[in-house]
Each structure stands twice: as structure tokens, then as C-alpha cells.
Amino acid sequence: MKGMPVSTSQSIVGGVIGVGLRMVLKDELSLSNLNLGVLTNILLSWIISPLSAILLSLTLYSVLQKRLTMLETTAGGRRTFKALMILTLLFSAYSLGANDVANAAGVYFFVTSKYLGLPDAYTMLILASMGAVGIIVGGWTIGREVIDTVAYKITKLDYGRELLLRLRILSLFGYSQPFLHC
Fold this sequence. Notes:
The structure is a single chain. By secondary structure, this protein is mostly helical. It has one domain. It is 77% helix and 0% strand.
């Protein structure tokens, strides 16, 4: 499984569900304290997100294939694709960072606020900063292996296909969905 993309959202939510269920089984928490509506929405988003990405990507590529191929053959078109890919990469990284840092820091913020009495903006800033550093270190260390898997081992992408993929990711901004499934 080395080099495979892993969803931080799924890992953290799964851990929270596991702890919650254990507490229910030990009678430390009532089943009514587990917000099944939120859990259902999260689980549905994990199913709907990749399926909608596949459908939208197929549709967009089918509709735009000729135009994209024509643009790729011109120097100006290739420069435009490169610029758009860099911009969408930055936006995608921003979105992923915001989502993953919030997922990771949210659990710790709850713990620090409940048990240490630190429910303030300063604590959130410290936890978010620690999460951001973690993302940077992860990108420098094992991120290359995931990049290799996504870039070369799933399918070969040209400029047009890459741009459509990135536009699909941008269309999801604002939703609490795991972007790695796009």
C-alpha cells in the first residue's frame, strides 16, 4: 500500500466513530450522543464524491475533447494550460490544507478545550499551525510517492485531462468532501 493516497478525513472520522462506539459499548456515552445524521452525510459524501467526479470528468472530457486537443497543439495553448494548472494546483493545495488541518486540529481542539480549558482563538491558531507544518513535512517526505502514484500509475494525463481534473476539484470547493477521491 506504499505510495497510495490516504484520506485524512476518513482516517480521523473513522477514529472518532470508533472511540464513540467504544464509549457507547462501555456505557460511558449514550447512543443518542452520536450524531447519526452527520455520520450519514459524511458516509454518503464518501460514496457520492468519487462517483460524481467520474461522471463529471467523463462528461466534460467528452464535450471538450476536440477543443482541448486543438489548444494543446499551439504554443500559446500549452502556456495557458501550464498557467492554469499551476493556479489550480495552488487552489487545490489550499483547499486540501484547509480541510485536512481542520480535520486533524478539530479533534485536538475539542480535547484541549474540554480537558485543559483552552477554548480560545490562540489555541486554534497554534493547532492549525502545527497541522500546517505537518502537511509540509508530509509533502517533503512521503508525498513524492503519492504524487508518483496519482501522476503516473492510475492513468496518463495530458494538459487537457489534467485541467479538467483540476476544474472538477475546484467545483467541489466549499463542500466537506475528501478531495483525494476526485
